[in-house]
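Render this sequence as a predicted structure.
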Amino acid sequence: MNMFLEPGALVRNPSAPEWGLGQVQSIIGNRITVNFEHAGKLVLDGSRVALAIESEAPPRPGSH
């Protein structure tokens, strides 16, 4: 589910949008530690939660 995550990635939990944007702190096995804007630092079970990766910067106008 979360095989493309790495520390520093910006993510959201689609099941809990109220948590806001989060930054992955560490990944150990299926344990993913994420620091969310509105929920603080949480340890999630990566086998049960599919995090959505956010793009780090929006594309610039005119860039393809």
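Summary. The chain has a mean pLDDT of 89. The first strand starts at residue 10 and ends at 12.
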